[in-house]
Design a protein that fits this description.
By secondary structure, the protein is mainly β. The chain has no helices and 14 strands. The chain binds copper (II) ion.
Length: about 190
Amino acid sequence: MVVPPAVSATGTSGNASLTLQTVATLGFGPHPDWVSYLVKNPQGKWVHSTNLVVPANSLIHMTIYQYDTATGLRNPFWGEPLGTVGPAKINGKPIPILNPDLASHTFAIPELHVSVPLKGVANNAKNPCSVAPCTLAETHNTITFTFRTGKRGTFRWQCFVPCAAGFILGFGGPMQSLGYMDGLLHVV
Ligand SMILES: [Cu+2]
């Protein structure tokens, strides 16, 4: 099995930061047309990975640049941000509950009771990003939130939007592949 490279959060034990992006089509590799997450490494380079390393017993400050359009949630439950320390925000404004139709992806760590919906960009966005890595000049929503880690361990995280275009019920392919819409959170 191919495992994407591990990418560490920046910062110190106690307070660390991670920056991710989502893109509608990755544009390279064995599945260039798959939807995907990417993560910025401590050197500032975008890496095609969902294999994240964060410190234990810490606040993890997340920034997610969301470049994809909405697919919509089947279960509106996931439209509510859960498990964050303070409010999850979109473009600087708190997200109370996201209309489930507007969700493009979610960032969810079920075992840590964390789930944050990511609002898609408009279908007619002026400057859409076609392939990764997308840049801040392209149309995006910026979602920020903080969650707390506890003990060490490895926890699965994933998206709950059926965003895998071309697969049965939208849940195949990238939705069941590490490096795309599934990931691992290593709490160390
Ligand atoms: Cu997704």
